[in-house]
Amino acid sequence: MLTRLLLMAGLAGLSFTVCAADAPVDADTLIAKNLEARGGADKLRAIRSMRATGKMRFGGGIEADVMMVAVAPDKVRFELSLQGLTAVNAWNGKEAWAIQPFQGRRDPQKTSEDDAKGLMIAADIGGPLLDWKAKGSKVEYLGTEDIDGTDAHKIRVTFKNGDSRVVFLDPDHFLEIRVEDHQFVRGQEQVTSTDIGEYVKVDGVYFPFEQSPMQIDAIELDKPVDAAIFDFPATKS
User: Taking a C-beta distance cutoff of 8 angstroms, is the pair 56, 69 a contact?
Assistant: First the structure.
């Protein structure tokens, strides 16, 4: 995965400044390099909506169709379709709800804020490193860690709610190669790790099309989106 990432960056003609071995490394410097590598903070801030489609891989060769639609700054809807059934998870910036037919629940049900934490992060199109101070987060540099033979830089972003994300950056191109989410759900810490790669340029911004176990096939930016799709469905009379 990392080899493909570096090859793609080279073929795309990207130009990044590599930190000298004896140069001081800190979170602010790495975040600035990451935002530049992704296309620039201004371009990331300018994105108003994003639609991504792809596949979710399960064991036994099973694949499900997935779709995510997000509208800045805080709305997201995720759909997973398999064998004629579609599960939905959505967050409209105030409340979350879900349809879980694979669990025998075909009617929409409101879900707790704890259960919606992953959706809240996904709703932030620019990602947690963009404008982290304005979002009330804290960042700290944690040194490096070997990720598949690469000494990746580690940055912890701690959100206002006490949850955090550890971002692992490739030391040459400063793009994410892994993220590790630490979320407290009903008082218990849950840790989820996702490997990231296969960056593709979309309208001047680089997005990872590999987010294991999900493979993105296409991303569209700033297309019209009906805001009603994020709200809890109205009850039929």
Answer: no
CA-wise closest residue to 157 among 170, 134, 138: 138
Query: For the whole model, what pTM was predicted?
Result: 0.88
Alpha-carbon span 215 to 42, nearest angstrom: 27
State whether residue 225 is helix, strand or coil: coil
Q: Give the residue, 44 or 3, on which the prediction is more confident.
A: 44
- Which tokens hold the place of 4? 């493909």
Instruction: Give strand pairing partners of 165.
Output: 157, 181
Say whether pLDDT at 11 is over 90: no
Q: CB atoms < 10 A from the CB of 40, how many?
A: 13
Report residue 47: phi and psi, to 5°: -70, 125
What are the C-alpha distances in Å from 125 to residues 46, 53, 117?
Answer: 10, 15, 15
Label residue 124 exposed, middle or buried (CB < 10 Å: 0-12, 13-18, 19+): middle
Domain ranges for the chain: 1-11+23-45+129-201, 48-125
First to last CA, the chain: 51
Q: What does pLDDT average to over the chain?
A: 91
